């Protein structure tokens, strides 16, 4: 039986390249593609893949929060992060969300195939450069207790923050999340209070700094 893979990346050329390479890899089958995090969640719930290859910096819903939502509903599905970033905050965020592997996009394709087989066997996969970062940061911060990423924002508040930072209007965010405008306004007020900011510009800076969005899409 083939391992069923869902590809989630906002760059079409990346998805097409990965699909072509995975198609000729024995034992693997690409069952779907998603161009943003929210679509990735929807497709994962519909297709129940064995593995989701998840880009971190996607629009609408970033890879960390998309991973958290997928793992909450499909705990048996493995998620492998595929990212440009080797920063500790991105690595930590993905593994806290439930990812089983982390690769950098400049790695060889063979590494992805190896990572997929590794996580399917129940193990964790880290590419060498990421492993070095993890070890270095662990040794540096072993005795330091840090505050949770996002200053304790709920999953929904993180979603709202990302969409606001990406330029969506209050009504558009409300429509996107299928809630009332008043609900979004309440979320925004609470987010600003928790973060101690007073403008959308400051919210945007915070979202970019924390890796919720890159604004490069």
Radius of gyration: 18 Å
Tally of separate domains = 2
Please name the CATH topology of the largest domain. Rossmann fold
Distance N to C terminus: 36 Å
Spans of at least 5 consecutive residues with low confidence: 142-150
How helix-rich are the residues, as a percent range? 40-55%
**How does the overall form come out from the CA principal axes?**
globular
- Secondary-structure element order, N to C: EHEHEHEHEHEHHHHH
In a few lines, what is going on in this structure?
With 217 residues, the chain is an alpha/beta fold. Helix content is 53%, strand content 14%.
Describe the protein's topology.
Elements: E1 3-8, H1 12-23, E2 28-34, H2 37-47, E3 51-55, H3 63-73, E4 78-83, H4 88-97, E5 101-104, H5 109-120, E6 125-126, H6 128-141, H7 155-165, H8 170-177, H9 181-195, H10 200-209
Task: Give an account of the 3D structure.
- The protein is an alpha/beta fold.
- The chain has two domains: 3-141, Response regulator (Rossmann fold, 3-Layer(aba) Sandwich), CATH 3.40.50.2300; 155-209, Arc Repressor Mutant, subunit A, CATH 1.10.10.10.
- The chain is built from ten helices and six strands.
- It has helices at residues 12-23, 37-47, 63-73, 88-97, 109-120, 128-141, 155-165, 170-177, 181-195, 200-209; strands spanning 3-8, 28-34, 51-55, 78-83, 101-104, 125-126.
- The protein has a six-stranded parallel beta sheet with strand order 2-1-3-4-5-6, with helices on both faces.
- Strand 3, helix 3 (63-73) and strand 4 (78-83) form a beta-alpha-beta unit.
- Helix 2 runs parallel beside helix 3, helix 7 packs across helix 9 and helix 8 crosses helix 9.
- The longest helix is centred in the last third of the chain and has 15 residues, at 181-195.
- The chain is globular.
- The termini are far apart.
- Mean pLDDT is 86; it is low at 142-150.
